[in-house]
């Protein structure tokens, strides 16, 4: 519950308004509420990720005030926050009144469709286009659509007092969204100096610390936010994530359970987190069971990335469990995960391995190439090399490691891995070449003997001779 005594002015009035609505709802008391008040309550719920509550109060409000513009505007923004663009457009189409917030909403819908010029033309119709209020609302509209340059450009149309609360809010949120965490903190701290118990300012600070990997400080900032509102679900979500990063699974789960209690995340999301925790512990059966529970409530998960991680997690579990009864299902899960999130690295890596094991080498390499193009980082190419080596596609593994060498020649154990992979791939000269750059080169005689043993090994057994070197990155040292 919000600690209203710690809130100031407008925030305190809104907290009291929300409490009045919830009391009447819970006690089944019929009361009349103004449409603008109900719209404010809906916006508060939406801002605090209580989407079901927001939808409920909007529906209630439209029963009392059919066709009300403010409520329809909130309904449209709620659909946008839930990735439901068509529903957002439908809600906006029901609006007949012309006013600035409606114009800005229509512009936002055009931005979501990628029609940036049309959005600006829509904004040109605003009366007193560059009034302070319009500038603030349009800047936040662009921030909500991740169009940071446009937000900054609109801010330039007003001569701001750098200590102005509204200016500090926009700058803080903009810098945070751009991942300029240290700069964002400066503005959030200014806001906190003027209003020490504003929960959203502390949440901004928490996100900054999170971005800087300062997990303990992020937890502290969340605790300050919870002093003002102990039902702030997003604070529990961030705390849960931080505790996971700090290796404290028990506290993490407690926080996520609180987030479920206050409707910031669904039970399905909690199950997915539990599954990931079990994967980290290599408890594959338990992890799979958690993912199954999450999948049973998949419709509650609006975020495609989370849904994708559930499918890739299930694929990993099946592959580790090596259950014959699920042959082919792990690959199906990988492909579903990729369909939901093209940037799911785990799904691409494992999917490629499974394709290779089924003899479809071109498809395997296609998946690895795809994720390498999406995420051209050293760690991704290192993983691609490891998976392609596991699939006995050593020529491609060499290519992946050489790609890694071009971008990060000092990557740990790179030349040892290149040496050993070249031996496995039957490329003796290349192995000897890369060996000389290794931090601990093998003797030439040893390389030749190892190469000979590999060449003479029965099919399917050659990799076993030195595969441990590829996974443990330990090599034979000079005597």
Automatic annotation (TrEMBL):
Xref: SMART domains: TPR (SM00028)
Name of the protein described by the UniProt record: Tetratricopeptide repeat protein
Nucleotide-binding listed as a keyword: no
Residue spans of the TPR repeats: 233-266, 268-301
Keywords, sorted A to Z: Coiled coil, Repeat, TPR repeat
Organism in which the protein naturally occurs: Candidatus Bacteroides merdavium
Domain of life: Bacteria
Coiled coil: 109-136
């Amino acid at each position: 519950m919000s600690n209203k005594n710690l809130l100031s002015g407008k925030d305190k009035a809104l907290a009291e308004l929300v409490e009045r609505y919830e009391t009447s709802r819970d006690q089944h008391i019929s009361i009349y509420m103004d449409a603008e008040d109900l719209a404010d309550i809906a916006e508060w719920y939406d801002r605090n990720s209580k989407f079901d509550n927001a939808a409920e109060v909007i529906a209630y409000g439209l029963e009392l005030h059919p066709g009300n513009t403010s409520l329809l505007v909130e309904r449209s923004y709620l659909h946008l926050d839930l990735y439901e663009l068509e529903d957002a457009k439908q809600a906006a189409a029901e609006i007949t009144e012309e006013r600035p917030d409606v114009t800005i909403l229509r512009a936002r819908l055009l931005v979501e469709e990628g029609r940036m010029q049309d959005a600006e033309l829509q904004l040109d119709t605003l009366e007193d286009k560059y009034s302070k209020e319009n500038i603030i609302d349009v800047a936040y509209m662009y921030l909500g659509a991740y169009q940071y340059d446009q937000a900054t450009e609109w801010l330039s149309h007003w001569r701001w007092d750098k200590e102005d609360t509204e200016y500090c809010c926009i700058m803080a949120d903009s810098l945070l969204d751009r991942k300029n965490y240290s700069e964002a903190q400066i503005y959030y701290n200014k806001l906190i100096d003027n209003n020490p118990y504003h929960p959203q300012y502390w949440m901004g600070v928490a996100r900054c610390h999170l971005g800087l990997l300062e997990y303990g400080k992020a937890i502290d900032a969340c605790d300050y936010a919870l002093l003002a509102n102990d039902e702030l679900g997003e604070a529990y979500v961030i705390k849960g994530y931080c505790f996971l990063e700090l290796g404290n699974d028990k506290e993490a789960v407690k926080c996520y359970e609180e987030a479920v209690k206050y409707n910031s995340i669904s039970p399905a999301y909690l199950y997915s987190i539990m599954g990931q925790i079990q994967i980290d512990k290599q408890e594959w059966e338990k992890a799979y069971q958690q993912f199954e529970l999450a999948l049973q409530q998949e419709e509650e998960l609006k975020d495609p990335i989370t849904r994708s991680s559930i499918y890739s997690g299930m694929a990993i579990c099946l592959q580790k469990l090596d259950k014959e009864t699920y042959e082919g299902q792990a690959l199906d899960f990988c492909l579903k995960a990729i369909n939901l999130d093209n940037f799911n690295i785990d799904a691409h890596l494992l999917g490629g391995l499974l394709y290779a094991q089924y003899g479809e080498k071109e498809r395997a390499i296609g998946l690895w190439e795809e994720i390498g193009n999406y995420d051209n980082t050293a760690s991704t190419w290192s993983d691609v090399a490891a998976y392609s080596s596991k699939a006995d596609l050593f020529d491609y593994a060499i290519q992946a490691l050489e790609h890694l060498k071009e971008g990060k020649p000092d990557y740990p154990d790179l030349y040892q891995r290149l040496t050993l992979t070249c031996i496995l791939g039957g490329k003796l000269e290349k192995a000897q070449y890369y060996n000389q750059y290794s931090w601990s080169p093998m003797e030439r005689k040893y390389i030749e003997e190892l190469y000979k043993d590999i060449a003479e090994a029965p099919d399917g057994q050659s990799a076993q001779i030195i595969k441990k070197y590829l996974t443990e990155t330990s090599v034979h040292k000079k005597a």
